Amino acid sequence: MWTINGFEQQKKFFENLARASPPAGGLAHAYIFSGPEMIGKKMFARDLFTIANRMARFALHDPDLCELAPRLAEGETWIYIDDVRDLKRFLSLKAFQGPYRFVIIDDAHRMQEAAANAMLKALEEPNPMVVFVLVTSQPELLPQTIGSRCQHIHFQPYSQKDMERCLAKYDLARTDRELVAGMAGGRLGWAIQMSEPDNLKALKKAIGDFASLLKKPLSERMQYAKTIYENEQYGQYVPLWLHWAYSQRETLGGPKDAARILSGLLDLNYYISQPQYNHRLLLENTLINL
Q: What is the pLDDT along the chain (290 residues), one digit of tens a residue?
């Protein structure tokens, strides 16, 4: 049973494959699921796992499932060769319930070179009952040798209308629902995450602060940059400012004003992800020049 909304074309495609059985038919050995971040690619892969194995519901610790991703909770942003090597034992076992065993790799473009080479070796030794799903928002960063051994499935962002319909089940005021849907850029996963009460409160504060800053003198902008830097809030706030500014680009003064603001926020969003730069100075310079 599908739990994810939308993607009807992809659902129909995989439902037809799941009805067949190898070697005459069935799922391919490997897929790349590509599309913007947080639109539901990993959720779709998990749904596919349950449907292909005719299960009633998804279970994260199912013995026929192995998931790899950067260990963000440990401060890691890469997938290392040791993570991929750990697959060896999983791949050597037969399906517990099956018929398929799944390997879902989230943010697959974050595999280091050695990890990608180890993954390539696994893909070169196909088992018809093991399915690899590489989930990525940047498929162009995957080695061509990996891409050539996978079927590519692309996922488009949701329309704002579909977003608002999906968010209707959440206890949101109409204005909040429109705000979240407008900022999400078609990323339903992001919209659902931002609909949580604490996240919504933080979202509204961040964009309220930013909208107010556009009318403030330079001294107050400098003080605000100092405050959010010292409170370590800027990493959360800057992407929200960027999404909001893009959704409001028609109302940010004239076209030149909107372009200046968006360009400044794009640069700031990139540079604060790089530890070698002075983040406080970047914040101050960007806010001064808005």
A: 898 888 999 999 999 998 876 655 689 999 999 999 999 999 999 999 999 998 888 888 899 999 999 987 777 789 999 988 888 888 888 888 878 999 999 999 999 999 999 999 999 987 888 999 999 999 999 999 999 999 999 999 998 888 888 888 888 898 999 899 889 989 988 999 999 999 999 999 999 999 999 999 999 999 999 999 999 999 999 999 999 999 998 888 778 889 999 999 999 999 998 889 999 999 999 999 98
Answer for the pair 65, 184: CB distance below 8 angstroms, yes or no.
no
Whether residue 202 sits in one domain with residue 191? no
Q: Which domain holds residue 186?
A: 160-195
Same domain, 171 and 140: no
